[in-house]
Design a protein that fits this description.
The protein has a single domain, classed as Thrombin, subunit H, CATH 2.40.10. Helix content is 0%, strand content 45%. It has no helices and six strands. The protein has a six-stranded antiparallel barrel. Strand 1 and strand 2 form a beta hairpin. The radius of gyration is 15 Å and the shape is globular. The mean pLDDT is 85.
Length: 107
């Protein structure tokens, strides 16, 4: 079966809901920070559910909330922010489904 080039993925998706803070500029031009969640994620991007429309081809910053650091020092104290571009979005009821592409693939 041959896929249309737009349907090919460079990295496989994992259907995983993870809470994530997203910071950026919404469709009306206002800066925002809100807690949302991923619907799926890959090394190169994510699909998010957001209550607001975002600006396509604008940068956003994603941060995964983490519990307070453990005293053991084995785990890193925080997850570094992930820089991404909004590549597409579509309405789904009262939500926007937003596709973002990471500036650097996840390791």
């Amino acid at each position: 079966m041959r896929l249309h080039p737009a349907e090919r993925r460079r990295s496989p998706r994992i259907h995983l809901q993870v809470p994530v803070y997203i910071r950026g500029v919404d469709a009306s031009g206002a800066d925002f920070l809100e807690l949302t969640r991923t619907l799926d994620i890959s090394a190169r991007g994510a699909f998010l559910a957001s209550p607001r429309g975002l600006r396509t081809d604008y940068p956003v910053t994603l941060t995964i909330p983490a519990p307070p650091p453990l005293a053991s020092g084995v785990l890193p104290p925080e997850t570094p922010p992930i820089q991404a571009w909004v590549r597409r979005q579509q309405a789904a009821g009262n939500l926007q489904l937003v596709g973002v592409e990471f500036l650097k693939p996840l390791d």
